[in-house]
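Quick one: structure for this chain?
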Amino acid sequence: MCSIQTPTVQLAHRTKLFPNKAQEAYFRKACGTRRFAYNWALAAWNAKYQAGETGMSGYSLRKEWDSIRHQEFPWTDEVTKWSGQKAIQDLGEAFTRFFKKTAQHPTFKKKGKSRESFYLGLNHFSVAGNKLRVPKLGFVKMAETVRFPGKAKSVTISSEAGEWFVSISVDVDPAWEYKHKCQSPDSACGIDLGLKDLATIFNGTEVTKIENQKPYRSQERKTKRLHRSISRKKKGSSRRWRAKRALAKHTRKIARRRSYHTHKLTSSVVKRFSLVGIETLNVKGMAKTKLAKSVHDASFGEIVRQLEYKAELAGGQIAKADRWFPSSKLCSSCGTKKDKLSLAERDWTCPACGTEHDRDGNAAKNLYSFARRHRENLNACGGGVRPKECSALEATSCEAGIGTRAANRKLAV
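Got it. Here's what it folds into:
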């Protein structure tokens, strides 16, 4: 008799650390060891490649590092072995992405410019209440206890604007229940993301618009002033270091404000709706236009990412229309597609039925209809839990209640 295993959910809890001076010195040594090991491995990889060797990998370089570090670099024994091993493993993954042409060639890390962090693997740390035990250091106080019940798998300690944080990855206990569980199993909504209004939500009866807080744009003048302040200071001076620290604290405040509003929006959506219809945006392409700052400031990709994983935890579904789905051009009343619709046109009238549309509200209504139709198809055909992306042709036929051939004629109009 076989047993059915419940799939494990892995979540990360990030909180602040309060190290004393000796513990902070250890953290900086560990970060320096990680940076040194990464640069050593990259230099060794480049040298082997120029010599004509093949078959290099992060695993082979890690074995070579472990065999020589005690004799050639004895100071690395003052910190955990994971600080160097994980850095070389990360380099191997960076080269894998480079060979797949999804990233650029790895570059050397420089003190003061690269992110300060190091990693602790399984069985090399422990968590007791609000304290974290680090090897060769002892217990470090955390701001709070881990909020997820389960087994802690790994730890990443990092520095941000002079403060230290820990991210603890946990295999969550199957009995744990997500606090934002969906309360209405039959509810649905369509969400249109934008720059003027961050999100336009249609729940079947009314349209709700969520204001775009614009965390970076609203603080852009102060950001420029802090950058100018750094440029006026002498390199290597204490005043320049203090100016850089002030800029880091300012940008951290912007990032936290953006993160707060993003989490608040996505948690509210998955708690109220079991089915969410959204469109797949070409964020990378949008970031190459004159609206690049505003696109990055709105963090469309992060909103979609949070909706996907939170909907899975809450027991909901995400229906994603592909990037060619004409959500703004389709009339939500009759399904007619408008030939041309510039970005400046915020309102338009359907030439077929005469219905007046708000651009974003109409897009949200079309995404709502697409999501509802997709749920009916899943229920009728017994499809999977995660809906696949739908093309503009399929979506048009779903929304208008017509066949594929008729939809093809409608899109061609």
